[in-house]
Amino acid sequence: MAYLGIGYSGSDTQFLRLQVNKHIEWLKGDRLPRFFGDSFLVLYDSNTAREFARKCTESAPEDTIFIYPMERPLKH
């Protein structure tokens, strides 16, 4: 099983949470993201996760979104 981490380095601490809330109905078709603080979340790697990462990248200021392919999820 693979995962996708999405990191945000901008100044808006609510950016990722706002993006998740904006797309929550669409994301519910897959596993919901798991937040690790305000600037990092992990999703099960899928077409939905990759599309969500693209939407975040397009909505964020330039060079503030980082995508991390992961083999296993982080532990709380």
Describe the structure.
This protein is an alpha+beta fold. It is built from three helices and four strands. The chain has a four-stranded antiparallel β-sheet, with helices on one face. The radius of gyration is 11 Å and the shape is globular. The two termini are 18 Å apart. The model has no long low-confidence stretch (mean pLDDT 92).
Quick structural overview:
The chain has 76 residues and is an alpha+beta fold.
Beta-strand portion reads 25-35%
In total, how many beta strands?
A: 4
Q: What is the string of helix and strand elements?
A: EHHEEHE
**Approximate helicity band:** 25-40%
Structural class call reads: alpha+beta
Q: Compute the CA-based radius of gyration.
A: 11 Å
Average pLDDT taken over every residue? 92
Strand order of the largest sheet: 2-3-1-4
The coarse overall form would be: globular
Count of DSSP-assigned helices: 3
Give the distance, in angstroms, between the N- and C-terminal Cα atoms: 18 Å
Main sheet record: 4 strands, antiparallel
Low-confidence stretches: none
